[in-house]
Amino acid sequence: MTGQQSSNASAAKTKTPKTRAPEDNREAISAADVEAYLREHPDFFQDHLPVLDILRLPHPTGGAVSLLERQVALLREKHRAMEQHMGELVERARDNERMGQHLHELAKTLMRADNLDAVLALTQDALRNELGSERVSIRLAHREVDDLHALDSSELATFEPLFSRGKAQCGRVPAEMLDVLFDDAEEIGSAILMPLGNESDHIGVLGLASESADRFEPDMGTYFVTHIGDLLAESIRCHVERAHAAA
Fold first, then answer.
1. Could you say which of 14, 65, 105, 157 is the most buried, measured as most Cβ atoms within 10 Å of its Cβ?
2. What is the pLDDT of residue 16?
3. DSSP code at position 16
4. How much is the CA Rg of the chain, to the nearest whole Å?
C-alpha cells in the first residue's frame, strides 16, 4: 500500500458520522410534542389550511369526520351547555327576586305587629305561607312570652354551640336541638337553625324543618334566612323594650 493510500484509509476511519436522516428526526417527535406545539400555536391551521382536508377524527357513532365538522359539533355542545347555564342563572335570579319580595313583605308585617305575640304569630304565618316551610318554631330566652315559645335555662344551654357559631346551621342538625324546637323531631329529615341575637345577647332561636332530607342541605345559601333572623330579632327586641318601658 502506498503512502497516499494509507493516508486515505486512515482518514476514512476517523471521518465524522453523517447526520441522521430527516426521517429519524420525524420519528423522534412524539404525539405529546405535536400537541404541545399546537397548543402554543392555535392559529397554525390558518396558515396551513390544506392540512385540514386530510385530517380525520374518530366519531362516537363510528366512521370519521373532518376536523372542521368536529369543531362545529364541539361548539354546538358548548353552546347548549352555556344556554343551560344561563337558564339556571336566570331561574336563580328569579328566586332571589321572589325572596327579596318576601323579605320586604315580612318587614312590613312586623312593623304592623302590635305586640310580641303578634310578631311571633305573623312571622310563623309568613314563613309557612310565603316561603313554604313545613315546620316553623320560634323559641325565646328570658322573655315575657307564653310557655309554647319560651326557652328555660337548660334548653337555652343546648343551643350554646349555635350561638358560638354565630350563623345559621343547615342540613342534619343535632337531635337534641330539634327535640327542644319540635314535638315530632324524629320525623324531621333536614332543618335550618338560626340564632336570634348574638353570643352575648341570646334572644332566641328560629327553626325551619322538613321531613325531606334534601330540603335543607349543608351547603345551601343562608343569605335570606340570616336576614329573616335579623328582622325577627330586632322586632322582638323593640317590643320587649317597649313593654319594659310601659311597665
1. 65
2. 46
3. P
4. 37
Cα–Cα nearest to 220, from 155, 177, 172: 172
Report DSSP state, residue 184: T
Percent of the chain past pLDDT 70, that is, above it, reads 77
Domain positions in the chain are 87-246
- Tell me the angle at which helices 67-112 and 116-129 cross, rounded to the nearest 10 degrees: 150
Class of domain 87-246: alpha beta
pLDDT one-digit tens code per residue, 90-125: 887 887 787 788 788 888 888 888 888 888 888 888
Q: Are 172 and 178 in contact (CB under 8 A)?
A: no
E strands along the chain, which residues? 56-58, 64-66, 135-141, 150-151, 169-171, 190-197, 202-210
